[in-house]
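Hi support team,

I've been running sequence recovery on a batch of backbones for a student project. Most finish fine, but this one hangs at about 90% for roughly twenty minutes before it completes. I'm not sure whether the input is malformed or the queue is just slow. I've pasted the structure tokens below so you can try to reproduce it. Let me know if you need the job ID as well.

Thanks,
M.K.
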């Protein structure tokens, strides 16, 4: 019975969530750049190509209390997907390439929003409490 209990306890420990990751990003103003497959923050390059890499980057943003940047990252990713989709559709119907230009412009705007947000670190918002 002891062996069975220890095995169940070990299994339960593997199911527990890992401890919250500490933020690897600097507190002050940051040097940020982004390409289609990477985001570089203060010389540290994060791969954002592929689902696993994107989720790791989102985990980093959340660990750093960068919820707004995570939202901008998702919007940028979705705009990039739209750019790719309209580009492929243009092979079948060339008129769709007009949409590719528009989607690429929108994706660029979303990327700029992400980069600008990451240049200014999040600060916890103070909450005013009224004593009535």
């Amino acid at each position: 019975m002891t062996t069975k209990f220890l095995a169940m306890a070990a299994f339960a420990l593997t199911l527990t969530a890992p401890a919250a990751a500490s933020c690897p990003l600097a507190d002050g103003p940051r040097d940020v750049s982004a390409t289609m497959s990477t985001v570089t923050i203060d010389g540290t390059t994060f791969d954002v190509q592929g689902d696993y890499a994107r989720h790791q980057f989102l985990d980093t943003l959340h660990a750093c209390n960068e919820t707004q940047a995570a939202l901008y990252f998702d919007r940028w990713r979705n705009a990039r997907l739209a750019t790719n989709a309209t580009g492929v559709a243009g092979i079948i119907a060339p008129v769709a390439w007009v949409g590719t230009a528009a989607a690429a412009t929108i994706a660029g705007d979303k990327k700029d929003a992400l980069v600008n947000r990451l240049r200014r670190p999040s600060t916890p918002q103070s909450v005013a409490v009224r004593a009535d």
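--
Follow-up from support: It reproduced on our side and the slowdown came from queue contention, not your input. The first helix runs from residue 2 to 15. No action needed from you.
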